[in-house]
Amino acid sequence: MKTLAAFWILVATLFAPVLAQDLRPPFLLTGALSRDSQDLSGQWTYSKDLYRTGLTDINGWVAKSRMQRYRDIDVAASEAKGGADFFEFDLDRGPTINVPGAWNAAAAELRYYDGLIWFQRKFRAEAPAGKRAFLRFEAVNYRAYVYLNGKEVGRHEGGFTPFVLEVTEALRAGENRLVVGVDSTHDAQSIPTFITDWDLYGGITRPVRLITTPATFIDDAHIGLRPDGRITGEVRLQGPQAANQAVSVAIGALGTARAVTGADGRAVFDLAAPKGLERWSPDKPTLYDIRFSVAGDTLRDRVGFRTIAVKGNQILLNGKPLWLRGISLHEEEFGPNPARNMSEQASRALLHEIKHGLNGNYVRLSHYPHSETTVRLADEMGLLVWSEIPVYWTVDWDNPAVLRKALAMQAETIYRDRNRAAVILWSVGNETPVSPSRTRFHSAMADNVRQLDPSRLISAALLVKHDGEGSSIQDPLVDKLDVLAVNTYAGWYGSDTLDAVAKLKWKVPADRPLILSEFGADALAGYRNDGMKKFTEEYQAEYYRKTLAMAENIPTLRGMSPWILKDFRSPRREHPVFQNGWNRKGILSETGMRKQAFGVLADYYGNK
Ligand code: GCU
After folding, report:
1. How far, rounded to the nearest angstrom, does the alpha carbon of residue 8 sit from its chain's CA centroid?
2. Of the candidates 271, 288, 306, which is a domain's last residue?
3. 582: Cβ below 6 Å to ligand 1?
4. What value, to the nearest 5°, has the Cα angle with vertex 266 and ends 264 and 269?
C-alpha cells in the first residue's frame, strides 16, 4: 500500500502546477550591470574534453584526479618536483580564447566542436570581510559547471539567461582560480533540442562579473506603470537584516515612494503616477533614473513607463492603436565570422539598421532571450520587443522535467527584463506542431507568464495552413494568446507562385490582432540579373513586394517581423554556391550589405 501511495505522491509532485515562487532562482542580482563589479571578460585559457573525463570516468565513476580540470593546483610546479603524480591537462598552460564569445569562431579546430570544454580565468580579489561575493554569468551555452579555487560553486542549464552563484566562502584574498566547464551538447530533453536552424555557438557567450554586496542587499527590484495610471512594484532584500527594513524608490526628480519590508524581505509600493511623467514610446523613448534604496545598499536602473494592451483586434500602446513595423533578429554580430559576442557597439549597429534603415519600431528577438545589452538598447533607441525562449519546433512535450526547464527559463528571462519598457510580448513557442501534449505544454507556459508578469501580452509564432485558396490558423493554443502570430513562407517553401501569394486570402478571427511573425526568402547578396531565379536578389525583392501586397489584405494585421534582418550561420544550409553554412533570408548580408529587398521593406514601413 505504501508503494502505491509513494507512487501517487511522485506523480503529483512531477505534475503539480509549478508556482512562480518555486521558479525564482536563489539569487537574481537584478540590474547587476549598474552595480560596481569586476568584469572577468578577456583572455581565458581552455582545455577540450570531448570524452568528458573531467566530469566522470568510464562507467560513470568519479573523474580521475589527473583529469579533473577544476582542481586548484599548479601543474607545472607539481611536475617540477617529479614523483609518481602526473596530469593529463593543464589549464595554466592551455591555449587562450576571448570571453565572452563562442568557441566555434575562435579557432579552426573548434568550428564544429560540440561537447565539453573547460575554461579558466585567474583573478585577484580582496577577502569579502563581511560583504557577500557573487559570480554572475550573463549566459553560458548550454550547461555550466562552475568551480572556484577547486570548490564546486554551482551549475546551470540554459544557454541564454543569466545565473548568479554565491562565492563568499570560496573567494580568497589574492589570486583566485575560476574554472568553468561548458557543455554545448543539446539533446531531446534540452531547450532547444539538438534540432535548430542556427549555429552551435558553444561557450561563455556573454560577460562574467564578480559582484560584492553588503551582507543585506537588494536582490530584485521591479517598477512599472499599470493601466489605471498607478506606478507599482516590489523590492526584495536578501540577508540577515532583510525583514522590517525601510525602502525608498525615487523616480527621477518626480517623486519618491516608501515602503517597509515584511518578514520575507519583500516590500511592495504603489503610488499615483507623478505629474509630468512622460510615457515611453518608440517615437519618444523617455527613460527615468530610478534609485531603489535601503540602509546600506542602493540599486539604480533606467526605466520607461508605458502601458500595453489588446482591445478587440487592436494593440494599444499608451491607449493608442499600434502597428508593429519590425523584423526578426538572431543574436549574431555583423561580420564574416561571428562569435555571438554581442557588445553594445555590435548590438547598436544591428538595431540602428532597424530603427533608421528600415523606419522600424519593433524587433523580434528570436528564438531565445537576447543579451540584456540589446534589450536595454531597445529601451534607449525606442524599439518594441518580442521576447521568446527556445521552445522551438520539437520539444519533449510529455516530460515534466522539460516543462520545468521551460518555465524556469521563462522566469529567468522575465525577472531579468520585466523593467524594460521595450518588451511588450512574451512568446511561448515557435512553429510547434499541434498535438494535445504540445498544447498542454504551451498552455502551462502561458499561465506561467500570466503569473510572473500580468502586464505584458502573450503570443506564439504558429504554423499556418495554406490550402492554395487561402491561409488559416487551426490551433487550439489561440485561446491562450492575446496576440495571434503566424510564420508564413508561401512563395518560398511550397509551390505557390508569387502572383498567387499576393492573392492569398486569410481566414483569421476578426476579433484578435494578428502579427506575421515570419515570412522570408533566401538571396545571396550580389547574385543579380539572372532572371527571377530563387536565391537572386530580384526574386527576394519581388517575394517581399507580393507578400506585402498579401499583408494589405489582412484586415486584422497589426504588425510583422519578416525573417530576417541579417544572414546568419546555420549548419542546415549547405548549398555550396548560395549558402555554405549560412541561412540567406537576411535582407542584409552577414557583413551588412543591403539587398534589394531591404529597400522594398523600408519604403513599405516609411509609408505606414
Ligand atoms: C522557420 C523558423 C526559422 C528558420 C526559418 C527558415 O520559420 O522559425 O528559425 O530559420 O523558418 O526556414 O529559414
Report:
1. 36
2. 306
3. no
4. 150
47 Cβ below 6 A of ligand 1? no
Name which residue sits closest to atom 10 of ligand 1, judged by CA: 197
Q: In this predicted structure, what is the pLDDT of residue 301? A: 97
Atom of ligand 1 at shortest range from CA of 568: 10
Q: What is the pLDDT of residues 121-154, one digit of tens each?
A: 999 999 989 999 999 999 999 999 999 999 999 9
Neighbours of 376 (CB within 10 A): 20
Please tell me the distance from the alpha carbon of residue 579 to that of residue 269, in angstroms, as a whole number. Answer: 54
Query: Which residue puts its alpha carbon closest to atom 4 of ligand 1?
Result: 197
CB of 585 closer than 6 angstroms to any ligand 1 atom: yes
List, for residues 209-240, the tens digit of each pLDDT value. 999 999 999 999 999 999 899 999 999 999 99
Q: Does 198 reside within a domain?
A: yes
Report the CATH number that the domain containing residue 300 is assigned in CATH: 2.60.40.10
Cα of 523 vs centre of ligand 1, distance in Å, is: 14
Mean pLDDT of 31-39: 91
Nearest-atom index, ligand 1, CA of 431: 8
- Using a 6 Å cutoff on CB, does residue 561 contact ligand 1? no
- Where in the sequence is the domain holding 297, given as residue range(s)? 230-306
Residue 526 lies in a domain: yes
Joined grid coordinates for residue 408: 524556469
Residues 6+ apart with CB under 8 A from 411: 20, 23, 24, 25, 448, 452
Q: How far apart are CA 211 and CA 167, in angstroms?
A: 10
Which of 199, 330, 388, 431 for a ligand 1 pocket mutation test, highest count of atoms within 8 Å of Cβ? Answer: 431
Ligand 1 atom nearest 522 alpha carbon: 13
d(CA 450, CA 461): 18
Give tens-digit pLDDT for 267-317.
999 999 998 999 999 999 999 999 999 999 999 999 999 999 999 999 999
Any atom of ligand 1 within 6 Å of the Cβ of 567: no
Averaged confidence pLDDT in the chain? 95
Number of domains within the chain:
3
Q: How far is the CA of 500 from the centre of ligand 1 (A)?
A: 22
Task: Please indicate, yes or no, whether residues 177 and 105 belong to a single structural domain of this protein.
Answer: yes
563 lines ligand 1 (CB under 6 A): yes
454-502 pLDDT, tens digit each: 999 999 999 998 876 679 999 999 999 999 999 999 999 999 999 999 9
Judge contact between 448 and 23, C-beta under 8 A.
Answer: yes
Specify the pLDDT at position 206. Answer: 98
Q: Are residues 382 and 395 in the same domain?
A: yes
Decide which of 146, 179, 213 is a domain's last residue.
Answer: 213
Single-letter amino acid, residue 250: A
The reported pLDDT for the residue numbered 15 is 47
Question: d(Cα 91, Cα 464) in Å, to the nearest integer?
Answer: 51
CATH code, domain with 414 = 3.20.20.80
Q: Whose Cα sits closest to atom 3 in ligand 1?
A: 197
